[in-house]
């Protein structure tokens, strides 16, 4: 355990004017209060608050925050009370300790309390004084570093809570190093095999390529010196979880993942940042679409940096971040930079964000949300998403989360514009409404009188504002239709588990889900705000886990008229679990498309042909074909191994076609029969990990290659 003198020395390193006596008194008080208490590991309990305080010294925080860390468990776990802490250490410290105590008692992972309500409480605690969250994050970091002493079930619970709530919160506050460490510590508990496999591959890669970091760092320093730029260069390998997440997001195996190394250039001035960028791009090729300038367009938490990805001679990509020392301080400590000290005085960092203003900007748009779920959706988007900056035709900047569409852009301008949206032009070219917007694009929204929001927009929109506005409008316009569809979804789901969707069962579910009545429940079920699984789980939690028999194909899709038939579109081959929409054909019934299918653009001006559809919520038969586009090595036994792998994943091969044969590789299309989209992703991940598989993608026909039907 760190002694009081050593802790004070850590504070003195950045704040020589610290009140050493006050910190020493807090140390003694905490030690006395926790006397006789021990951690799961057998250490004295007080070693934990001291370790939390030490973590906060790394962020160069003020005395009040360090003292709060030392005392953060006294009100909750000892005989000390608020009045005693206030009398000995002042009202400010007592309020902070009380705030941390209340935060600890939120029971953020309990099943009874909805995650949405947790976030709302979390934000209320944050809004009073952000230092409460800084202490709580440091507390969680130390608990995760020492988690091995806990029971296995408790480890999983804490790790999941860390991954879902605390890690994204640290990232949103700008403390990227803490986010990465929290994620990796949680990953170690939740998926130890996955983490070990990445570490093993790293070791193999280093054996094959040598010390890449040392070599590239030296090359970068040489280029900067040649250009007369004074700068520091640091390199590192990405954390295992960061690599794992990229593999999941990009649906790529480790061997195909390129930017697993990151480099940071710290310059003397903003001008030098751009000069350094030029020097790097002159030596290495820039990867298109991977450049971001957060210096001219800072993030809302004050983060500024230039990001670029470059490709070396061997084709390996590396990520480079370029920033000044002051920008780096904010990048390391985020919103906490407001309280940090350097050489005994509060840092006057021009890039540090005022925490009160930051919290206000985060919460102001959520104040009007109708319920906890809308609030959660909006907050999660704010916390998890990177941003893109688009322009109106007049040149005004609109900030949106990554993945946003013209629908989100329209609602960001005004709800009225969103409701009346019929199309959009991006950089002067007409695009479908589900197009993902990119940084720097100019967006012109096309509106029409009499237009109202469509239910399919819920599948397209990603921002909380757009989705809640669409829902409100749909509830008013199409409430009866949604109730009817919701009743059909509920009936099918209850029948599947051997029960009936009686009025009493639906009322019970509504009460459990905190909705006004069963009509509200059915309306939300019909508008895809609730899933049938949620409703079943609310009334029969034990049956929700047992999915029963597989859903027959004739009942797989819900939302059709009685006697209406359906078929899956061959262009996109939608699978259970994917968002779908139906297009009606005279004499042919309904053709089911995935919501992101290219072909849907042909029907944009024929809304009367669109049908709201959902896949049945139960377990489906392995009878839905999907086509894989694979390139494999041309060696003896490779194709046999691939077929064996597919069989081991319980997928049946129904067709195999060679598209291209070369001396060293084959490209082929393989039709496999699957249960759902989850099985498809699992299969593709397994195939990508195979050394002889150069690439594997889901094959989908492009709009121009599909013959017009109907």
UniProtKB/TrEMBL annotation:
Principal EC category: transferase
Q: Where is the TGS domain?
A: 382-447
- Domain HD residue range list: 45-144
Pfam families, from UniProt? Answer: ACT_4 (PF13291), HD_4 (PF13328), RelA_AH_RIS (PF19296), RelA_SpoT (PF04607), TGS (PF02824)
Ordered alphabetically, the record's keywords are: Kinase, Transferase
The reaction(s) this protein catalyses: GTP + ATP = guanosine 3'-diphosphate 5'-triphosphate + AMP
One GO BP: response to starvation
Q: What is its EC number?
A: 2.7.6.5
Which PROSITE patterns does the protein's record reference?
ACT, HD, TGS
Mention any one GO cellular component term assigned to this protein in its UniProt record: plasma membrane
What the entry lists under CDD domains is as follows: ACT_RelA-SpoT, HDc, NT_Rel-Spo_like, TGS_RSH
**Limits of the ACT domain:** 627-701
**InterPro entries noted in UniProt:** ACT-like_dom_sf, ACT_dom, Beta-grasp_dom_sf, HD/PDEase_dom, HD_domain, NT_sf, RelA/Spo_fam, RelA/SpoT_AH_RIS
Please list the GO terms describing molecular function.
Answer: GTP diphosphokinase activity; guanosine-3',5'-bis(diphosphate) 3'-diphosphatase activity; kinase activity
Q: What does this protein do?
A: In eubacteria ppGpp (guanosine 3'-diphosphate 5'-diphosphate) is a mediator of the stringent response that coordinates a variety of cellular activities in response to changes in nutritional abundance.
- What is the similarity comment for this entry? Belongs to the relA/spoT family.
Q: What is this protein called?
A: GTP pyrophosphokinase rsh
User: Which organism's genome codes for this protein?
Assistant: Ruegeria marisrubri
């Amino acid at each position: 355990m760190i002694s009081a003198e050593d802790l004070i020395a850590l504070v003195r390193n950045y704040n020589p004017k610290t009140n050493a006596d006050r910190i020493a008194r807090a140390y003694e008080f905490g030690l006395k209060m926790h006397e006789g208490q021990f951690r799961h590991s057998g250490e004295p309990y007080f070693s934990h608050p001291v370790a939390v305080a030490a973590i906060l010294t790394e962020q160069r925080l003020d005395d009040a925050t360090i003292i709060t860390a030392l005392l953060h468990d006294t009100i909750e776990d000892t005989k000390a009370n608020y009045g005693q802490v206030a009398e000995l250490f002042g009202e400010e410290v007592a309020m902070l300790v009380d705030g941390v105590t209340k935060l600890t008692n939120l029971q953020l992972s309990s099943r009874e309390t909805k995650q949405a309500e947790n976030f709302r409480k979390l934000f209320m605690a944050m809004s009073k004084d952000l230092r409460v969250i800084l202490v709580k994050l440091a507390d969680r970091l130390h608990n995760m570093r020492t988690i091995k002493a806990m029971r296995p079930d408790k480890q999983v619970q804490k790790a999941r809570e860390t991954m879902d709530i605390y890690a994204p919160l640290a990232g949103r506050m700008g403390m990227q190093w803490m986010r990465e460490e929290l994620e990796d510590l949680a990953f170690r508990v939740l998926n130890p095999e996955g983490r070990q496999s990445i570490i093993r591959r790293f070791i193999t890669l280093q054996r094959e390529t040598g010390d890449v970091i040392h070599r590239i760092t030296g090359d970068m320093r040489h280029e900067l010196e040649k250009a007369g730029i004074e700068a520091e260069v640091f390199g590192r390998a990405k954390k295992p979880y960061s690599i794992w997440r990229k593999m999941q997001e990009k649906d790529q195996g480790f061997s195909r993942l390129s930017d697993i190394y990151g480099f940071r250039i710290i310059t003397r001035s903003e001008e030098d940042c751009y000069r350094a960028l030029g020097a790097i791009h002159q030596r290495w090729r820039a990867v298109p679409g991977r450049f971001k300038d957060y210096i001219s367009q800072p993030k809302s938490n004050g983060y500024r940096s230039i990001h670029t990805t470059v490709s070396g001679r061997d084709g390996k990509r590396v990520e480079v971040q370029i920033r000044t020392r002051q920008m780096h301080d904010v990048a390391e400590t985020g919103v906490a930079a407001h309280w940090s000290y350097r050489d005994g005085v509060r840092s006057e960092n021009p890039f540090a964000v005022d925490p009160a203003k930051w919290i206000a900007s985060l919460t102001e748009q959520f104040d009007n949300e109708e319920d906890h779920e809308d609030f959660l959706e909006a907050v999660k988007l704010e916390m998890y998403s990177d941003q893109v900056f688009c322009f109106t035709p007049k040149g005004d900047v609109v900030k949106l989360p990554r993945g946003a569409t013209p629908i989100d852009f329209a609602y960001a301008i005004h709800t009225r514009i969103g409701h009346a949206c019929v199309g959009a032009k991006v950089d002067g070219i007409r695009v479908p409404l589900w197009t993902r917007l990119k940084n720097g694009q100019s967006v012109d929204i096309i509106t029409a009188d009499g237009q109202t929001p469509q239910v399919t927009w819920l599948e397209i929109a990603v921002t909380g504002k757009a989705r809640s506005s669409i829902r409100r409008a749909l509830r008013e316009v199409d409430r009866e239709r949604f109730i009817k569809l919701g009743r059909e979804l509920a009936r099918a789901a209850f029948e599947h588990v051997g029960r009936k969707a009686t009025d009493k069962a639906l009322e019970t579910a509504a009460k459990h889900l905190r909705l006004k009545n069963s009509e509200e429940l059915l309306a939300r079920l019909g508008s895809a705000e609730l899933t049938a699984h949620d409703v079943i789980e609310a009334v029969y939690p034990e049956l929700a886990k047992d999915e029963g028999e597989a859903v027959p194909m004739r009942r797989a899709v819900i939302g059709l008229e009685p006697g209406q038939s359906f078929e899956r579109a061959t262009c996109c081959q939608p699978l259970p679990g994917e968002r779908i929409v139906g297009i009606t054909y005279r004499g042919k019934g309904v053709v089911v498309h995935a919501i992101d299918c290219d072909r849907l653009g042909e029907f944009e001006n024929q809304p009367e042909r669109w049908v709201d559809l959902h896949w049945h919520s139960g377990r489906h038969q392995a009878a839905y074909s999907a086509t894989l586009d694979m390139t494999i090595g041309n060696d003896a036994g490779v194709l046999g191994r691939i077929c064996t792998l597919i069989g081991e994943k319980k997928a049946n091969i129904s067709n195999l076609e060679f598209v291209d044969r070369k001396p060293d590789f084959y490209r082929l299309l393989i039709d496999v029969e699957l249960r759902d989209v989850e099985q498809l992703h699992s299969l593709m991940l397994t195939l990508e990990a195979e050394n002889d598989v150069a690439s594997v993608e889901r094959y989908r026909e492009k709009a121009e290659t599909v013959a017009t039907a109907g």
